[in-house]
Amino acid sequence: MAELVSKRYALSIFEAGLELEKLDIFNKELKYLDEVLKAEKDFFEILKNPRISKDEKKSLITEIFRGRLSQEVINFFYIIIDKRREKFIFDIIREYQSIYNEYNNILKVEAVTAIQMDEKAKEKLKLVLENKLGKKVDIINKVDKSILGGVLLKMEGKIIDSTIRSQLKKLENLITNVH
Fold it and tell me: For the domain with range 106-178, which CATH number is right: 1.20.120, 2.30.30, 3.40.30, 3.40.50?
């Protein structure tokens, strides 16, 4: 049910953004909302609490987000509150991101490296991937010191592993199989 609810609400805000020519604005605002709700867990718990009235929740939303979010996104949040779907907000935002990325031909790529990539390296990787894949690429760099070096790319459920750790593992398997 959560997936169905998330898709339905995400699609409705996406279609509104498309009609109003505000897709990019809604995208930025929903990312901001996602960050705020994840950072302020107590605030999110208040929003999910059924004992707090819908009007009190809407008042909080207005007070906190007026001037930071468009009235359309605030109204969308009111609908979520009216329908008691607050607990699905993260799923709705994630689903919106997915629809937005697909519409704009954007591929999210997670690049796992042993150290943080500098902007020049990210840009170079982005250009290579965009040329190979024919899509706009959005790179998210995550650090995992255990890979030792190289890069592990995760995209569309696929993994491209060119890390030193995986190369050493292959070498180890090769040596082990010689005996």
Answer: 3.40.30
Phi-psi region of 157 (alpha: psi -120 to 50; beta: other; left: phi over 0): left
Torsion angle of the four alpha carbons 116, 112, 32, 7, in this order, in degrees rounded to the nearest 10: 170
Instruction: Give, in words, the CATH class of 2-102.
Output: mainly alpha
Statement: the pTM of the whole predicted model exceeds 0.70: yes
Q: Where in the chain is the domain with CATH 3.40.30?
A: 106-178
Number of continuous H segments (helices) and E segments (strands) in the chain: 8, 4
- Beta strands per DSSP E along 21-179: 106-113, 136-143, 150-155, 158-163
79 three-class SS = helix
Cα distances (angstroms) measured from residue 173 to each of 41, 163, 166, 167, 179: 46, 16, 11, 10, 11
| Digit-coded pLDDT (tens) for 111-159 | 999 999 999 999 999 999 999 999 999 999 999 998 888 899 999 889 9
Q: What are 54's two structure tokens? A: 């819908």
